[in-house]
Design goal:
Elements (H helix, E strand, L loop, with lengths): L1 H10 L3 E3 L5 E2 L5 E2 L1 E3 L8 H18 L5 E5 L4 H11 L3 E4 L12 E2 L7 E9 L3 H12 L3 E10 L3 H9 L4 E6 H10 L7 H10 L10
Length: 210
């Protein structure tokens, strides 16, 4: 599944690999990769595979899940479609509570003690997913874990998720993606190790000139 989803993401242009002209993240870090999983929503064939895969991960790792919660905003649509496949209720967690109406941060009816799985599109440093997990716990949810489309596998993200007392399972990851990218001619073979060097130490830009 990891390579199949990697192929799908590359084929619809949801992953941009530009090692020769790196992207600059908001943090200032230069990166050879940019992942926009929102593009899966407008590619029905890929979208079907992604949602089926997310449903499979939920069933495999969290068979007692009672509700899906999407991260705002990227995880909302995926949580809704996956919940439809699993015949589960869903909701989502806002970045911050509304300042009007009922001032909700968590949307959707969730009783305390509900066994919840968080649906996220992308895991990098893990910050946004952990914020959702913490908000759900504060509201009384029993958060079983996170299921996501793609992870960079960055050390910081892995450690932060573990420190938060939860776990993430992704459909695909950077290791599988660069393998497929080389096999299908998206990047030259020599770029594989350089991209993985970025992932292993994002603040070290020596990979750019190797």
């Amino acid at each position: 599944m990891e390579k199949q989803i990697a192929h799908e993401l590359l084929s619809i242009g949801a992953v941009f690999l530009r090692p020769e002209n790196p992207f600059t993240w908001a943090s200032g870090i230069k990166s050879p990769i940019y992942c926009d999983n929102r593009l899966t929503l407008s590619a029905p064939s890929t979208r079907d595979k992604v949602e089926a895969g997310l449903a499979q991960l939920v069933k495999k790792y969290h068979p007692d899940c009672e509700m899906l919660m999407g991260t705002s905003t990227a995880g909302i649509a995926h949580a809704a479609m996956t919940a439809t496949l699993l015949n589960l209720p869903m909701g989502y967690v806002r970045g911050e509570a509304k300042t009007h109406g009922r001032t909700n941060r968590i949307e959707g009816k969730m009783e305390p003690g509900t066994k919840v799985v968080v649906i996220e599109d992308l895991i990098s440093t893990g910050g946004s997913a952990i914020e959702v997990v913490e908000a759900l716990r504060e509201a009384g949810a029993n958060v079983l874990g996170i299921v996501s489309i793609f992870t960079y596998g960055m050390k910081k993200g892995v450690e932060r998720i573990a420190a938060a007392g939860t776990v993430n399972h992704s459909l695909s990851n950077l290791d599988a993606l660069v393998d497929v990218a080389v096999e299908e001619g998206y990047i030259a073979p020599e770029w594989k190790d350089r991209i993985l060097a970025f992932r292993n130490n994002p603040s070290d830009e020596s990979w750019i000139n190797k």
